Amino acid sequence: MAALAEVGSAGHFRELLQQKGKSLVVVHFWAPWAPQCIQMNDVMAELAKEHPQVTFVKLEAEAVPEVSEKYEISSVPTFLFFKNSQKIDRLDGAHAPELTKKVQRHASSSTISAGPNDNAKEDLNVRLKKLTNAAPCMVFIKGSLQEPRCGFSRQMVEILNKHNIMFSSFDIFSDEEVRQGLKTYSNWPTYPQLYVAGELIGGLDIVKELEASGELDTICPKAHKLEDKLKVLTNKASVMLFMKGNKQMAKCGFSKQIIEILNSTGVDYETFDILEDEEVRQGLKTYSNWPTYPQLYVKGELVGGLDIVKELKENGELLSILKGEN
């Protein structure tokens, strides 16, 4: 059967994962307003014909928010891969070749229990190299920067923040393949792990030693350079919107709504796609002390997100704020 299964509730989603057990389940978090999602549904339908043993599911992200929030779906399309009700992999964005590759890899691992797959290992090493070089300073932790999920990860984040170090993070709980593979790749058996310019620095004990010796500040990139960049970006136009996607193609419902509101005012504005720059995406949250997107700035000053913009529109204040009158 090549048709895509549709999930309309959190209960239905849980039942489907339990029913499928050890077989691979691929879930497309999509939105009907996004043309790239429609295109990827067609790709999923073709993959379903090629892999009848795999269950392909589409789930409208904004219609089942409890599931989207649980798995931190921040843009569409996003694909999650499950076995035994556990998430084993993730793909963000409309990347048909990468989706096909991941389906082939995980589907084959469901049916083949033989020895090591050299090609898969090579693919993983390429991916790990990209991840460790994703930002000048990368930390692999349990949980997120906002909610570390172990004491060692929390201490690591606190030390880096205390020293005003600019860094990005990867939640190893979100990807079991990365979690296990990075131990071999780096020859370091525990987490957290800190990388600078793609090179392993070490874990929490090493970072504590570097802090005590004063070397940490010379090894890791400082945040002030990024702050300069963010100051320039937030002042790039009189009205600047930081969003997922751009004016022509929003990549999440919140960004789409705020674009519609701004367009209705007739005021000129520029946008910045945070999905194109992970350093800006993470750094702006700290710079503005605002944890979510979209974010609207007028003359370099944060106005707020979608809810605040909606309130200002309802109160009749939005136009005067956008014109810099308030």
From TrEMBL:
Cellular-component GO terms for this entry: cytosol; iron-sulfur cluster assembly complex; nucleus
The keyword Membrane is assigned to this record: no
Protein location: Cytoplasm, Cytosol
SUPFAM superfamilies: Thioredoxin-like
Gene: GLRX3
Domain of life of the native organism: Eukaryota
Keyword match Endoplasmic reticulum: no
Transmembrane portions of the chain: none
Name this polypeptide is given: Glutaredoxin-3
An MF annotation (GO) of this entry: iron-sulfur cluster binding
Residues of the Thioredoxin domain: 1-108
Signal sequence annotation: none
GO biological process per UniProt: [2Fe-2S] cluster assembly; cell redox homeostasis; intracellular iron ion homeostasis
Record keywords: Cytoplasm, Iron, Iron-sulfur, Metal-binding, Repeat
